[in-house]
Design a protein that fits this description.
Blueprint lengths: L3 H15 L9 E5 L1 E2 L8 E2 L1 H14 L1 E2 L2 H7 L8 E8 L2 H14 L3 E5 L2 H5 L14 H9 L3 E5 L12 H19 L5 E3 L7 H10 L2 E3 L18 E2 L7 H9 L2 H11 L12
Parallel strand pairs: 1-5, 1-10, 2-3, 4-5, 5-6, 6-7, 8-9
Length: about 270
């Protein structure tokens, strides 16, 4: 198991490599999972770090919804535009992240996998992975700040599924969100950020956008169905968070993808 000290040391090394990459420009979409849980997971951030990160991005620019970011990607003003997104649907999003976002009036998107909300079962086996309730989702929706997106029903790896099975996962998720919230989701995020060509055909038929996980910004050529999102991690803190927003820590992401045996598809519309 990689220790926190080792992760931070590794990030410091990647910062040095990152100086050879150009600065990111255009709107940035940030990918969060859990906030304030202190479980030792890399996919969480502390409450203090989340507050500091919000402070910084508000000083640097403005937080907007996905549609606004896409419309601003053609102009220089898009460079100071940020989108906040959460995956899965952990209860701490309501308990810890939402009060801060509501107090600041900041919009955000929540990509839900719906089975945990229906069953009440945790999203992971470890403690601290309790799901949101539909009542909590409704409260956040009523604030006017949150957009709900699809993240499949069971948080499946679409690369390993046939077309019919993926369609069933999307059907279940979309139906439950529409039944509970009144409208079907217009946005989608691939679980674990894992894209597949066969799933994308279905996604393009159903949604207005789809999001991956990739350390990049969006620009005029970005395919709305391959939106890169920058994963924010526990070891980022505030110092590495700033570097990740500015240049992406792309060497770190390249290593991570090689370890996982996955490569992000081209995100430009010219690649389709």
């Amino acid at each position: 198991m990689v220790t926190r000290a080792a992760r931070i040391a590794g990030k410091a090394l990647f910062v040095g490599v990152d100086t050879f990459f150009s600065r990111l420009t255009g709107p940035r979409i940030l990918l969060y999972h859990q906030v304030g849980t202190d479980l030792g997971q890399e996919m969480e951030v502390s409450l203090e770090a989340f507050q500091a990160q919000l402070d910084w991005i508000e000083r640097m620019g403005r937080v907007v919804d996905i549609e606004t970011a896409l419309s601003s990607r053609h102009s220089p003003e898009g460079d100071g535009t940020f989108v906040i997104t959460f995956d899965d649907g952990y209860s701490d999003v309501f308990r810890f992240a939402f009060p801060l976002l509501r107090g600041r009036g900041l919009p955000f998107t929540l990509y839900l996998n719906t089975r945990p909300l229906e069953t009440g079962l945790p999203l992971r086996l470890e403690s601290g992975a309790e799901p949101l309730t539909w009542s909590e989702v409704e409260t956040m929706m009523d604030s006017g700040l949150m957009t709900v997106g699809s993240h499949t029903h069971s948080h499946v790896d679409v690369r390993r599924m046939g077309t019919d099975a993926v369609a069933e996962e999307l059907d279940k998720c979309d139906r439950l969100i529409e039944e509970r919230m009144g409208d079907p989701p217009r946005h989608f995020a691939y679980p674990w950020g894992y894209w597949s060509d066969s799933a994308e055909k279905l996604v393009r038929e159903r949604y207005e956008t789809a999001a991956l996980a990739a350390v990049s910004s969006i620009n005029a050529k970005t395919d709305p169905y391959r939106l890169p999102r920058i994963p924010i991690q526990k070891s980022d803190g505030i110092a590495f968070f700033k570097r990740k927003i500015r240049t992406g820590l792309r060497a770190e992401e390249w290593i991570r993808q090689r370890v996982k045996g996955y490569s992000v598809p081209p995100t430009s519309t010219t690649a389709n």
